[in-house]
Write a structure and sequence with these properties.
heterodimer; A: mainly alpha; B: alpha/beta; Rossmann fold; 4-stranded parallel β-sheet
């Protein structure tokens, strides 16, 4: 049996999924170079909590299992420790591929648990509004929404952070916030076009 | 005098204020001139890259464009950006690296920057971490020479975390998994340095916010190892690691049923102590885990934890049950 080449006119998003992931990743992802050795999963500190090890996820991407890959909790549990990167014999940019899968899962609304995407989005909202991170706003919004039951136990810590001036109640806005907004707006346009 | 463009990052102004204060206390003695990038913005940490690529890298690169322009305007001859925070350092370094590795990214980012009247030519700046600069530019001889109060008798576990020694595209570190730079620096300060096997293992990063059980497991491993080696304290270079290990130590103890009281401090704080600076100027009071028992071993009297003393208040039990705050004793009448 021979494999039929995929027509460039075929719009099925599952086909060429690996190419799409690679193209949307920051550097040269080298995802197609994966030899399925499993060094990444063996080096990963959070692999135990993942639906699929990175190796398995990459096999799924290659097989065109787009939805399954984007539904996996694996990218959301990546801690960006780069252990896999320095050990990977093929120099695949593993955490950067994970970032790509996160952004694709958000766009396709395929993530199953909203805690992590919400946290990222809240963080980014603060940064886009002020130009700097705003931990007090981020923490209150995030914990009230997702971890209200953790709040009583965390109150001493929160008060400690405030009283030791390790968290400011008011945000800090950069001077060039309009310039930053213009840059980000343009960047979003460019991103949408690519 | 070594002059650098300096990118502090958001945490230096909030959760890692102790890092900023202690760095400030030692820069003159180290002969470092840190020229802060004017009106820098957040690097996006590990959050923005997981949402949208071009905006994330444009956010990071605005800082490099500002730094470039500042260096050109002042003509001070430096093209090195120093970052003190690990995540900031990695983000800046990655932006510079990936814009060269994948010219399309560079083109897109510069198209976005142009909307703000900025431009950055990738490869024109050197991005380095503060520890790298202290080890390789200042040098350990200069550090040793500045030590007036050696930290004899203090057992420290050097803890670098992930994002400084890895992925290390420029090959600046002696090893990706067991680098010795921080060990050598702490030895030069006179401390007893543990060969800490987990020195570049992960603290969980933002997992404390999105998957607490994962975070507590990772934090527990680090605290357990430091405790097993009888460390008096853990010494780190990373604001995120410090925040997770210090501020979430209590919650980790609750989750794992442990009782660690492990102080976690920044390497610049110990440099300040060894250089004879008073502990009050080095931010020790900002730690949530008390540093006083550890520092008393080297005869340093650390300031009492800052903040208003908690006055025991009597609260009448009325209305709905509310979470109790420390110092709020219920009155049963």
């Amino acid at each position: 049996m021979t494999t039929q080449p995929v027509s460039p006119l075929d719009t099925n998003p599952n086909l060429r999924f690996l190419e799409r992931v690679s193209a949307a990743t920051a550097g040269v992802a080298r995802l197609e170079m994966c030899i399925q050795c499993g060094t990444c999963g063996g080096s990963c500190p959070s692999a135990a909590d993942m639906d699929h090890t990175p190796r398995m996820l990459f096999a799924m991407i290659r097989a065109g299992l787009r939805e399954e890959a984007l539904r996996s909790n694996t990218p959301w549990l990546c801690v960006s420790c780069y252990h896999c990167v320095v050990r990977c014999p093929q120099e695949v940019h593993i955490p950067d591929v994970m970032y790509t899968l996160k952004s694709m899962a958000i766009e396709a609304k395929l993530y199953r648990d909203s805690v992590a995407p919400d946290f990222s989005q809240t963080f980014v909202d603060m940064v886009e509004t002020y130009g700097r991170s705003y931990e007090f706003g981020l923490a209150t919004r995030h914990y009230l929404k997702h971890y209200p039951l953790r709040l009583p136990g965390m109150a001493p810590m929160g008060l400690g952070m405030l009283s030791k001036k390790r968290m400011d109640i008011t945000p800090h806005r950069i001077e060039g916030i309009d310039q930053l907004h213009a840059i980000l707006e343009k960047a979003k346009e460019v991103e949408a076009a690519s | 005098m070594n002059k650098y463009l300096y990118y502090p990052g958001c945490s230096m102004e909030s959760s890692a204020r102790a890092y900023a204060e202690s760095l400030n206390a030692i820069v003159d003695q180290m002969g470092l001139v840190l020229d802060e990038i004017h009106d820098w913005n957040c690097c996006g940490a590990t959050e923005y890259v997981g949402i949208s690529l071009t905006p994330a890298y444009s956010l990071i690169t605005r800082n490099l464009a500002l730094a470039s322009a500042q260096a050109a305007k002042q003509g001070n001859g430096t093209n090195t950006v120093v970052a003190s925070c690990s995540a900031c350092y990695l983000n800046l370094a990655k932006a510079d690296h990936f814009m060269q590795e994948r010219p399309l990214l560079g083109k897109n980012v510069n198209e976005a920057l142009a909307a703000g009247g900025l431009h950055y030519e990738p490869g024109t700046l050197e991005i380095r971490h503060l520890l790298d600069v202290i080890i390789n530019d200042v040098g350990l001889d200069a550090v040793s020479a500045a030590v007036t109060k050696p930290l004899k008798g203090l057992r420290v576990a050097p803890y670098l975390g992930c994002m400084v020694p890895r992925p290390d595209y420029e090959g600046r570190w002696s090893d990706h998994e067991h680098p010795m730079e921080l060990d050598r620096l702490l030895s030069a300060l006179g401390a007893e340095v543990i060969d800490f096997p987990l020195k570049t293992h992960c603290c969980g990063g933002h997992m404390t916010q999105i998957s607490p059980s994962t975070a507590f497991e990772l934090l527990g491993r680090l605290l357990h190892a430091a405790d097993q080696y009888h460390a008096d304290m853990m010494v780190t270079v990373c604001p995120m690691c410090q925040m997770n290990l210090d501020a979430y130590q209590n919650e980790t103890n609750h989750a794992l049923n442990t009782h660690y009281q492990m102080p976690v401090i920044f390497f610049t704080q110990l440099m300040g102590l060894a250089f004879g600076k008073p502990a009050t100027e080095l931010g020790f009071a900002r730690n949530l885990v008390d540093t006083r028992p550890a520092l008393s071993r080297i005869g340093v009297e650390a300031p009492a934890p800052a903040g208003p003393p908690v006055q025991p208040r009597k609260v009448k039990k009325t209305g709905l049950p509310m979470p109790s705050m420390p110092g709020h004793e219920e009155v049963h009448e």
